[in-house]
Amino acid sequence: MKAIAKHFFGLFLLFNIIFFYARFTHPQINYADNPKFDGNKYLKSYHYFRGDSSKYEVRFPFHTRLYCNVLASFFDANVFTVYRVINYVSCAILLLLLLFLAQKINANLSLTSALLAYILLHWAGPVRYYATDVIGVDLPCMLILGVFLLIIYYQNYALLWLWGILCVGIKEIAFPYLAGLLLAEIIIAFKILDSHQKPIFRNYLSKNMLWLIFALITTYLATQILNFYFPPFPIKWFNSSFITLLLQIKIIIDKPLMAISWILGTCIIYSFMVYAVYLKALHININSLSFKYLICSIVAFALSFLGGSDYTRLVMMGFPVVFIFLLENTNRNAFSSPAIFLVFILLLPHTRIWEIIPHPVFEERLCQKWYPEAGAIIENTVFLLYSCFIFFVFKKNFSRLKNGF
Which one-letter DSSP state was computed for residue 350? Predict the structure, then answer.
């Protein structure tokens, strides 16, 4: 625990520095400037629970994302201040939880801290991005994903039904993650992972799988209850997550170049994480825990690709899952501390820490140059090429990096 305390203290100090730096330097969105901002939907829900509105007129799918709005409505402070506190607390707890999990899976804590520091500094990370877009549920969503990873590690699946009920009121991601975990359990039960034995029907209805099925049922019922008492406005035939998914697939088929934006958005977020744990440092261990985290990571990437067109933000939301999966499959002795520090410094340009995020309304064209999904293909390709250069330098000198300087 002393090791965790030391690393958490350093990260918490950096987190506070970046948080207050972004708070007083980055522009804060005034949601009245553009009705298309998601924050407007959350504000409608917030004002309803505050008693400022007698009708619940919130569009799909934001109508069920109400837990944070209910919590915020209990406080008399300015709504932006309340949400800023919610984001601050969610991020701080997430940092501690990820460090704790990293120690449990026997990860290199220096590498873990470097990866988390990189994400804290990153413009699309959980601190700077949400200093601009304050009102939302993304950070509580990341925290609930961290809790999900902890439940998987401790195999305490009896808590998953409660996790699902909590999750559906934050964001509608519980069902795909629970279904992915159930799929992993089925594959493990059929011994498909064991190449030395034929697949058999043993342990198909294991205790863990029964709890997962129960969690899926309770999650579905919780979703239907929220839909009944807080229906979307207006009610339309396509107000369904499944239909929305099909419509998004159709959009991608019609515009296949959107995949390039998603790839660039993924590289923007995970560049340091990928290059710091790749090559000989990355060993995919086909054990049950690693396989479950792998399936959950695939779900995270699928949701980021099919969940909408704002790829950079959606990729970032799956960060806790991908982060723990990569650490779980990384040789803790693969890098010396100087090597970790070197890669961290070389890839700092990805964080754009020296720049202020432009205002999305008053500096719209400049802001669009930051997001590949907004058409900033050339700008972000430059960062990708720089990453490739670092990657090849890293690969060529891997043995020296591994042993120190």
Answer: G
Residue 394's Cα: distance from chain center in Å? Answer: 27
Rounded to an integer, what distance in angstroms lies between the CA atom of residue 358 and that of residue 383?
18
- Nearest-angstrom CA–CA distance, 3 and 10: 11
Radius of gyration of the chain (CA): 21
- For residues 269 and 124, the answer to whether their CB atoms sit within 8 Å is yes
Residue 76 CA to residue 83 CA, distance in Å, equals 12
Per-residue pLDDT of the chain (405 residues; tens, 9 = 90+): 666 778 888 889 999 999 999 988 888 888 877 777 888 889 999 999 988 888 888 888 888 989 999 999 998 888 999 999 999 999 999 999 999 999 898 888 888 888 899 899 988 889 998 988 899 899 999 999 999 999 999 989 999 999 999 999 998 899 999 999 999 988 887 765 544 444 444 444 578 888 999 999 999 999 999 998 998 887 765 666 777 777 777 777 777 777 777 777 777 777 655 555 554 455 556 678 888 998 999 999 888 888 777 778 888 888 899 889 888 877 666 666 777 777 777 778 778 888 888 887 777 777 777 777 665 566 667 766 776 776 666 665 555 545 444
205: three-class secondary structure by DSSP: coil
Amino acid, single-letter form, for residue 151: I
Among 252, 271, 249, which Cα is nearest to 261's? 252
